[in-house]
Amino acid sequence: MNVTPTAMPAALTAPAANYTQASASDGPVISSDFETFLVMLTAQMENQDPLNPIESSDYAVQLATFSGVEQQVRTNDLLKNMGVQLGLMGMSDIADWVGKEARVAAPVQFDGDPITLSPNPVAAADEVILVVKNAEGIIVDSKPLPVSTDPVEWNGEDGNGNGLPYGVYSFELTSRSNGKHLSTDPMESYGRIVETQNSGGQLWLVLESGERVTADAVSALREAAE
Prior knowledge:
Blueprint: E1 3-5, H1 9-12, H2 26-46, H3 56-94, E2 101-104, E3 108-110, E4 115-118, E5 127-134, E6 139-145, E7 152-154, E8 167-177, E9 180-186, E10 188-199, E11 202-207, E12 212-214, E13 220-222
């Protein structure tokens, strides 16, 4: 299966109202600030101590610092403009996500095919345990996993190797160190997307399990298994 990491949702889900486009006066303001900087730099040079002149490298550092700030301002304005555009075109962009599988920390539908899980243990952990719960929140499986971020497959069996019924399941990862509990966190798994929605400027995805998640909660996409 081809897995496609996606960095788009965070920008897509931001409503246009949250962004302020760069105004036409942004350019003149930056230009004015640069002229002020040059005046201050000239005054600094004229009034320096002749016996202890400022090093030319110091001027270069000041100019580079100002240029960096100016560039950052322009970059921020560009990102804001991009956010506006993505906010407007986001719904059409994610329309083709329907039918694909999204990696998200949410309950997913088990229909007999193994479910791919993406563990993310705490850095200090020396032991991790997979905890599987059914739709009622009852633990139906629990087993140790390698302390790794490598994907693992859950084949739909309980701790005794018995097949579990089709339905909605959620996954958690418990991290431990020296026998002490560190944390228990929701675990990302792949679920099929059946619908996209736009509600109040927020983009939502409806999974086959019936779970509704925001588009920015998706960390990866892949083609659904045949």
